[in-house]
Fold these 4 entries.
Entry 1:
Amino acid sequence: MTDTGYRALLAQREALEKQIEELRNAERGDAIEWIREQMALYEVKPEELEPRSSRGPRKQSKPVAAKYRDPASGATWSGRGKPPRWIAGQDRDKFAITD
């Protein structure tokens, strides 16, 4: 079995890629000129083309006060996220900080 058909297709692909590159380079200048004309017409500044942030800068969250304390080690937990081993599966009222 020969792979001449496969080799022929590879050669065609290479020739097409070369043609694509040549056309892109030839038409690129026209595209840039058209973009410049549109920017001048609508008075668009280059810095306006930068991507916009979908929301403002994220605010830094403040630390949350501890709600529970381990009497054995003194470790604390705010009640957010996964509970530590010392409180998991137990009544949280007995660990509550009552300051």
Entry 2:
Amino acid sequence: MDDVEITDVDENGDALPEVDAEEPKRPPRELPAVGLLAGELVWTHGRYLLPALAALLALLVYLANRRTRPHPASAPQDAEAVVRRQEAMEASRRRMQREQDAKAAVFREKRKQQEEEKRRQKIEEWDSMQLGKSFKGASGPLRNRDEGAPSGSAAKPKSDKKPLRSSEYSPLSGEGGGSCSWRPARRGPSSGG
């Protein structure tokens, strides 16, 4: 039994190297020259390449969408559909024009009424000014009271109200009583020197 040797084989039947055997050290893989050039290019000009690639991607997406979408001008149109659409647009235009004309007529009528009211007020003011009354157009009760009494004998009613404050009250001096008094500030520095 000593002459039997056991070896490990892989799927193809080739002998696998022994685990204890020293494997020859391979040199580290180096990038090919093209990879080095691309890495250096990205390292030095990356800030320009990234926006350029984003713009290129956006352009490609736009062109792909444009190619798949049918153009309305190139699609064959039915002559009857075009005529119906134009007639509908014309009917809509006529309807909107009628609405606008009605609004304009209402506006003109309101403006005419306002002008008539202003003219009437000016005539009333002129008449009252000619009669020697108030320029602003006296109201009805005031006009009747003035007409009933002679102009010289119209006496104003005397009020029996008490004045709000005494005649010697001065808000700047603080005299005349009150819960607080105000005095002007001193001149000069606040620290006192």
Entry 3:
Amino acid sequence: MLTFKYRAISRDGAKVSGVVEAFDEYEAVAKIKENCTVVTKIAQVEQRENLLHREVLPPRRISEKTLAVVSSQFSILLGSGIPVVRAVELIARQTNDKALKKILTQVAGDVASGFGLAQSFESKGRGLPTTFIETVRSGEESGTLDVAFGRLKTYYDKSSRTKAKVKSAMAYPLFTIVVAVIVVAIIMVVAVPVFLSSFAAMGAEMPLPTRMLIGLSNFFTHYGLAALGLLAAAAIALKLYGQREKGRLLFARLHLHLPVLGKIAVLKSASQFANTMSTLLAAGLPVIRAVATTGKVMDNYCIASQVLRMVPGLEEGKQLGLCMKRCQYLPELLMEMTGVGEETGTMETTLEVVGSYYDNETELASQKALSLLEPVVICILALLVGFILLAVYAPMFAMYNGVM
């Protein structure tokens, strides 16, 4: 809603001024005239967002787990015959997510004023994904909002469970790496200089591993903070470059060509494409709109760009299976099955089955990669610890041999 400042003459003839919220100037004037006879001046207040909040901190995205719960609540309430406005108000009161509560509260006001639910979500829900909004819009247009929310519940529940499994599997290796880095840094900065200074005071000859360790320890002690600063600056520079068109495309393409991780990215993209398309088609969206929406929500920017390039071909009347041939990174099986579903008129069901298949393949590939990562991490840690022990004990053995 917009904010308007106004000056007016009240019913008793007094000059008054104030602020009113409305969707447009006509509605604002109507609200003012409920208490005043004449509106002498009205102007829209420019809403300037905080620069830091607008440019540096993007709107917080609502988690898929939360979207699954909310979609389930909407499906149950609307299926029970509760009006849309009442359903939005009830869910807004019950949710613990502050960002979602704010969105739903504003949406309830919009819907009560006569605006559509999807239109209100689109204008107020900056943290809501395009798939959510477009599915709601389709359900609203076809009069099957409860069914549309039911499909969204299934879609987001499935997606959130898959991501949760991957995160759970990654937790232990990441924890091990972080702890190892901290321990090694403490040893290099605190413990090693004490040992080595004692050996140097005794006049012991330093072997090569010990001299290498001294050099590393001196570097961490004197230039550690500067190195961290450079790494942070490089990370920020890469982050900013990755927000540009060329940078996003370059990093996405590099991700697809990485060993092991590239295969997982391709499988995940295939899963996203199939599941999102199935959900949107089941909600009643035309193929062209479904493809355009799917291209906007895919994680890998390179594949997303190729999916969006299919839209002009579809608008020319070409088949989806044929247009997909231009996507060099999507799996051949996905293209073939989409073409079969298109020819038999069962694309929605076919893509749902294919989506489940690629969900399983993504999970298996992730587990396999993590099973390979754990021994690699252990080997690297063993080499690091072995090198430090060798560098510390080598002078002691040299001194012992000299005494003998």
Entry 4:
Amino acid sequence: MAKFLLLVLSLMLVCISLLPAASAGPKRVARTRQAQEEFRRLGDRQRQLSDRKRQLINVRRGSRPLRHTFDTKPIYDQWRAQGSGSSTTIEYGGGPVLDGKTLKIYLIYYGYWQDGYGQTEVENFIRSLSSADSSTKAQGEAGDQTVRDWWAITSSYYSNTSTVSPIVNLAKVVYDKGSRGTKFSDNTAWDVVSNKVGPGKAFPYDANGIYLILTSKDVTIPGFCKEWCGWHTMDYLKSKRVVYSLVGHHAQCPKSCDAQVFSPNANPAIDAMISTIAHEIAEVATNPDVKSGWFDAEDEENADKCSYYYGDTTLTTNIKGNSAYYNLVGFNGMKFLVQQNWDWATDSCVSQAVSSL
């Protein structure tokens, strides 16, 4: 009898196990699937962070240094549509910034640059970043924000020992008419820079300087216009750190890197390049080694968090009679449309440092 009862009980347990669980209704199933999806996303994020850490530990990947790119506008639009953006705070990673009394810019015009191709606008903007040049005087209308106000955002960033230099100086300009041809490879920019730095060469070695390459319209670069508008990185020359940046000519990509059809200086490509130049200089100054300065949880640097955001703008008429927007005024009253920058103190995109308001 006991064996019979045990057999009946076993059959009942088997039948019960085959029945659908009453508590596993649609809501619980949905919650379970949602939890699984969240867990999967968390795992993906952890793997991404692990990949990022591996990249940061190994600054050089293969024969190419780690680069930080300023993506094109379509990429940023898609990225932000997915819920990413400037919602996360920026943090200091414990590494260096470009400090010292003066931050020097060493400018290389690469390719076919004739007089009047936009060099005046570029150089005036760089000179307007601070009062290092005696000629740097903002002469805008009352209430206009100045380029110097904009740079004060960047110079508020700090390291363990100092802050980013408040003074920026255009140290020297050279022309390279195409020593490496018009088709860049991944290593061409470094070849151009490294052959111009050192004793007896065009530029001195400057650990706190920025070597900036601007290419002409006829120079093609892998990924330019499709993926990025500019980038910066660092490398070593005889064991010495060299920080450099590359910005391609924006005439090649009016839809992906430019902000407006007409521009305040009647040169849309150059005016757009100036905003990219500002973007790169601000990032190089705050994260020169591309691994341990200032960036957020999504690996975005300060200028990335405000890409293609311009804040309050003013409509002006350029010398060709076309209407265009600007938001900053610099040397000789020249007007620029420059993206905002991230203020670490307020966690927001601004056009001038809070301390200068």
